[in-house]
Amino acid sequence: MNLLQLENLTVKRGQCPVLDGISLTVGQGEFVGLIGPNGAGKTTLLRAALGLLPHQGRSNLAALSPQDRARIAAFLPQARDIAWPVTVESVVALGRVPHRAGSHRPGSPRPGSHGGKDQAAIDRALDRMGLAGFRGRTATALSGGEQARVLIARALAQDTPLLLTDEPVAGLDPAAQIRTMQVFADLATEGRAVIASVHDLGLAARHCTRLIMLETGRIAADGPPRDVLNDTLLARVFGVQGFHTETPQGHIFQPLSVTR
Amino acid sequence: MSQRLLLTLLGLLVTLLFFGSLLIGPAALGLGESLSALFRGEGGPIVLVMQEIRLPRAILGLLVGAVLGLSGAAMQGFLRNPLAEPGLIGVSSSAALGAVLSLQTGLAAAFTLALPLAALTGAALSVLLILALAGPRGGALSLILAGIAISALTGAGTQLVLNLSANPFAVMEIVYWMMGSLSDRSMTHVWIAAPFILLGGAMLLLTGRALDALTLGEDAAQSMGISLRRLRMMIILGTAAAIGASVAVAGAIGFVGLVIPHLLRPLTGGQPSRLLPAAMLGGAAMLLAADIAVRLIAPDQDLKLGVLTALVGAPFFLHLLWRMRGVEA
């Protein structure tokens, strides 16, 4: 089943197209890495697909009401933004907002006091991001990388079939990066779909089932990592060349030098 | 502190201060006779004092304080900025300009309701203006800038009225009115203000869940099913109704909407949805206490309420900032 369906999605800034006629579908079981140099349109693609930007063309998500969309797709924006000194658990609990539209009790007073199903989703998200010991800590007092993990856990707690994340692993330590990519891969194996914009091509090559390479608002390549990360495309789109090898752990790619 | 305990304690405090406000005044009345006079039908002097002077004053203190605290908390939550306050979107200064015009033209002297009605009209016009300026899709920044522009414009209008006024008594009346007060208000004032205050307050109380989601930014909130457009309308209309009506009956009272949410935020775990009801009760408590204080400090001098809240509020705010200094460094 297709979870994301984009037809000719176009976003313009003034006259200049930032995103130019993107058509693609993402189905259950896929972990899609969205790659491309700075300014290629990764963030714009994610935001327009959700209907957060004025756009032309069609996106199945943008056509939904905000409430319905929030139960199908969760989104982790690039900006790590926590405005108030709330606890880690209450940040993660925000992921449950779309699921208790009718029965929300304002504010959840103590840790571990949410309704059964909500609490289970919150606990699972905290566990998955290795945050079980952080529950009662004040989120704004954590380090940047820890806050990033808390925000990923928030998106996981939304418990949607589709997860869109914008640079989820930027600024994380190596263990957290691998853990995050592994969690996303697990979600895909469970029959969900994840789309993550990633700058680390090595991580993308290892963990994603499919890569979509963007070049100035267009799709330059779309397919399995070992096909997309070929030398010609890497030189043309990213201006880099690197080292490839196949291992039992999957495709390994390490960028080595700049070609232009 | 658990939310239930916090709200219970604040509720008790507000109840105590409300009765305190009823029992304290220049006419030294006994406890029993004053309270029973509230419910008696015939018109002796005690009944008159209680029902026509002290009761409206206490009710207005309760209502105005409650919406100052509540709208301060809502505005800070919506703009994600602890420096926001209810007057930021220009409603207070527009309501004030309406009131000032009614004082200057003599309408206010001609019939009692002219002043509050003119203030409400000013508040309503400011809402239309802010919606036109900030646009339907505008974010927090365009709202703040539109609010600043409207405040500057209406502030200049008030200055112009004072500047050109040929009548020194009108000028004095305007200056005193702008200091904010709850003295000499009647039940008529309560009936004018209460519907708007209750309606606006209810709208603001309903924004808790959306404000919680907004903690993580506009994109994240929208992706969690929150309609920012609806939230913005609720905040603007709720604040305009509640604050417009407050200014109409009590004048401009500063600092309650800024200090109270600050003070109570740590006790509510920083969550906007928990802060809203707490700030509502806290604002009511602060204004009732200040209104009792002006009667006790200078019983013969008509010390203005807005002067006292700013006098007490500003140093208190500095103290909070002083304490935050160590934490943020």
Sequence-ordered SSE layout with sheet pairings:
The complex is a heterodimer of chains A (260) and B (329).
Chain A: E1 2-13, E2 16-27, E3 31-35, H1 42-49, E4 56-59, H2 66-72, E5 73-76, H3 88-93, H4 116-128, H5 144-157, E6 162-166, H6 174-189, E7 193-197, H7 201-207, E8 210-215, E9 218-223, H8 225-228, H9 231-238, E10 240-247, E11 250-258
Parallel strand pairs in A: 3-7, 3-8, 5-6, 6-7
Antiparallel strand pairs in A: 1-2, 1-4, 8-9, 10-11
Helix pairs in contact in A: 4-5
Chain B: H1 3-23, H2 31-39, H3 45-79, H4 91-105, H5 107-110, H6 114-134, H7 140-164, H8 168-178, H9 187-205, H10 208-214, H11 218-223, H12 228-250, H13 256-264, H14 272-297, H15 305-328
Helix pairs in contact in B: 1-3, 1-14, 2-3, 3-9, 3-12, 3-13, 3-14, 4-6, 4-7, 4-8, 4-12, 6-7, 6-12, 9-12, 10-14, 13-14, 13-15
Q: Mean of the pLDDT scores of chain A?
A: 90
Please tell me how large the radius of gyration of chain A is: 19 Å
CATH class of chain B: Mainly Alpha
Low-pLDDT runs of 5+ residues of chain A are 102-112
Contiguous uncertain segments of 5+ residues of chain B: none
Pattern of helices and strands of chain A: EEEHEHEHHHEHEHEEHHEE
The percentage helix of chain A is 25-40%
**What number of domains of chain B?**
1
CATH class of chain A: Alpha Beta
Q: Can you write the helix and strand succession of chain B as a string? A: HHHHHHHHHHHHHHH
Major sheet characteristics of chain B: none
Portion of residues in helices of chain B?
Answer: over 70%
